[in-house]
Design brief:
The protein is mainly α. It contains 5 helices and 2 strands, in the order H-H-H-H-E-E-H. Helix 1 (5-12) crosses helix 5 (74-110) and helix 2 (16-27) packs across helix 4.
């Protein structure tokens, strides 16, 4: 089964270290070495996390002379946000309908006394 970009992005962000790397790159570009300074892990471990993020399309690396800065690619975040937003709107609509039904039930209860007779 082929894994789509949205699935790869969610899988990549399932790890807290990778989410932190994305947060750091949202502020500024950084090299692997600069990112690794913040973690109690090897440079190779940080590189593996970056590779997962790259494969998901969340991060890219460029070459700037001897530096290879990592850069956040916001297009995939936009894709994820769109997917989440669609289901958030559907859930809100469903809860809105439930609220309306509950309000109608509450109004019906207000028009009757405890024994069920109209007031």
């Amino acid at each position: 089964m082929a894994v789509d970009q949205l699935s790869r992005a969610f899988v990549a962000l399932a790890d807290p270290t990778r989410r932190d790397i994305v947060a750091r790159l949202s502020v500024r570009d950084a090299t692997v070495g600069e990112l690794a300074e913040s973690y109690a892990m090897s440079l190779q471990a940080v590189s593996k996390h970056l590779k997962v993020l790259e494969e998901a399309g969340l991060v890219s690396r460029s070459r700037d002379a001897q530096r290879r800065p990592c850069r956040l690619e916001p297009q995939v975040l936009d894709l994820m946000t769109g997917w989440i937003e669609r289901y958030r709107r559907q859930a809100e609509a469903r809860f809105g309908r439930l609220d309306a039904v509950l309000a109608e039930m509450d109004e019906a209860d207000d028009t009757h006394d405890i024994e069920g007779a109209p007031r």
